[in-house]
Amino acid sequence: GAGVSQSPSNKVTEKGKDVELRCDPISGHTALYWYRQRLGQGLEFLIYFQGNSAPDKSGLPSDRFSAERTGESVSTLTIQRTQQEDSAVYLCASSPDRYQETQYFGPGTRLLVL
Amino acid sequence: SQKIEQNSEALNIQEGKTATLTCNYTNYSPAYLQWYRQDPGRGPVFLLLIRENEKEKRKERLKVTFDTTLKQSLFHITASQPADSATYLCAPTDSWGKLQFGAGTQVVVTP
Fold first, then answer.
1. Mean pLDDT of B96-109
2. Residues 71 to 110 of A: which have CB under 8 A from any B CB?
3. Residue A34: CA count within 13 A, CB half-sphere
4. What was the pLDDT predicted at A102?
5. Does residue A1 carry a pLDDT above 60?
6. Coil, helix or strand for B81?
7. CA dihedral in degrees (A2, B63, B94, A41; nearest 10)?
8. Given pLDDT bands bounded at 50, 70 and 90, which one contains residue B7?
9. Using the beta-carbon criterion (under 8 Å), do A45 and B100 form an inter-chain contact?
């Protein structure tokens, strides 16, 4: 069956531009997570959605970062006025619900800010 | 603050031997602990989960232990194969299902 998909797979942008990253979770999964992974580092939690509400946004690093989710489907992570320090792989994961412990990850979007 | 430590140096091991990876955590009381595998350019893939009241869990050639007193988990790959070469991530998880990931340990299995 289809797993978690993310688009684009790679994104190169100039400093100061806005970018949108998309995540399509596994159908029927109510919980959706965004993480950031800098080169050679672990995953940093950004935000968690349960349905289309975001009860935990504690990992968003600044107000330049925002995310939304349509129903129990697609999510978009938006980074405004990108900075070079935003360069990283952005990973999305979904699970049937928050208390279903295993998370299923997408392949990630590699963002490079020049 | 909460901290998760995994061996930062790559673990080089000969095919057929057992690889042992360590995950230590501080200022944290996870309800359970997960291990994931990550290949270059891919997202992490779930391997095993062990709960705080379990001492050991096995799945095929994988074994995980969890010592809540030492605040440590050990991950073993027995009879290692070159296909086991990857980065292995430890992820202590709280009772609300929130994971925190370690930076991972790279394993390289040579024939």
1. 90
2. 91, 93, 95, 98-108
3. 31
4. 86
5. no
6. coil
7. -70
8. confident
9. yes
| Predicted pLDDT at B99 | 86
The beta strand positions in chain B, using DSSP E, are 3-6, 11-14, 19-26, 32-38, 45-51, 56-59, 62-67, 72-77, 86-93, 105-110
CA distances from A39 to A32, A55, B14, B103 (A): 23, 28, 27, 10
A64 secondary structure, DSSP code:
T
Mean pLDDT of A61-67: 96
The reply to whether A47 touches chain B by the CB within 8 Å rule is no
In chain B, residues with a C-beta closer than 8 Å to the C-beta of A35 are 101
Q: Give how far Cα B94 sits from Cα of B2, B35, B68, Å.
A: 12, 14, 13
Distance from CA of B26 to the nearest CA of A (A): 16
Q: Which of A69-73, A92-96, B55-59, B99-103 is the least confident region?
A: A69-73
Nearby residues of A53 by Cβ (< 8 Å), 6 or more positions away:
none
**Is the separation of the CB atoms in B92 and B27 below 8 Å?**
no
Across B97-108, average pLDDT: 91
Size of interface A-B (CB pairs under 8 A): 48
Q: How far is CA A108 from CA A34, A99, B69, in A?
A: 10, 23, 36
Do residues A57 and A69 lie in contact, with contact meaning Cβ atoms separated by under 8 Å? Answer: no
Compute how many other C-beta atoms are within 10 angstroms of the C-beta atom of residue A71.
8
Q: Using one digit for the tens of pLDDT, what is the confidence trace for A20-29?
A: 999 999 998 9
Q: To the nearest whole number, what is the mean pLDDT of chain A?
A: 93
